[in-house]
Amino acid sequence: MAKSSLLVRLTVSAALAGSAGALAYHQLALKRVRRIPVPSNSILKTSPLNNAVQASTNLPHYFDCFLVTVRASSLKDWASLRAQFDPASDEGRRALNDHITTQFARSFFTSSLFSLERMVLTLAGFPRKVLTNDQTRQLAFQPGDDVPPFAVIERSGNEILNSWAFQPRMGGLNWISAEFVPDQGDGVVLLRYGNACWVGALDTKAVPMEEDRLVTRVHRLYGRMLMDLAVRGLEA
């Protein structure tokens, strides 16, 4: 009886400690990850697939976009990146943005949280093909590349647009971007992650996910956590 009571107390204590840790992490992520409007000139907003959804629903569908600003000097191998790409020049800055965006995508799709999502989706039968983290880190994230169920459908320099679909249940877009901005120090890097979601297939009138739905709020929290872990994977 004493052993059973001790086991219960240990289990409850572990659960409370885990919950407290998760709450503390969530609060930290909330401070670090800012929700922003989707940039109107981004390929997330201007993609043909997004336009098709708008035409199908005649209503704006669910969008989310997050921003984390980091010091460029906090990135892994920043000294070698600065020497290789020369961010003082326009051409070097464009190449640097492209490189960091690719690294950001690799970090996003190999984070511990996305790995858990991938495992759950695999158990549910989505997707049929699975990449290892090592395989994902080799991707250039150009159109034709995919990290199932996500597929790269558009790449424009420092922007990557992925699509996903669980037909006929739901579908969406996933957008990743990085932009180096010079300042008085080594500069900062603006890391952005956005997504759009809808329910149903486009040819059967997709229904937009509403802002105040519980699943939407949970998805937003999950997006913040994914974003935070992806950024951490870029930092030294």
Can you give a write-up of this model?
This protein has 236 residues and is of the alpha+beta class. It folds into two domains: 1-32; 35-232, Alpha-D-Glucose-1,6-Bisphosphate, Chain A, domain 4. Helices cover 45% and strands 23% of the residues. The chain is built from eight helices and eight strands; from the N terminus they run H-E-H-H-E-H-H-H-H-E-E-E-E-E-E-H. Strands 1, 2, 3, 4, 5, 6, 7 and 8 form an eight-stranded antiparallel β-sheet that branches. A hairpin with a 7-residue loop joins strand 7 (188-199) and strand 8. Helix 4 packs antiparallel against helix 5 (90-108) and helix 5 (90-108) crosses helix 8. It is globular and about 50 Å long. Residues 1-21 have low confidence and may be disordered.
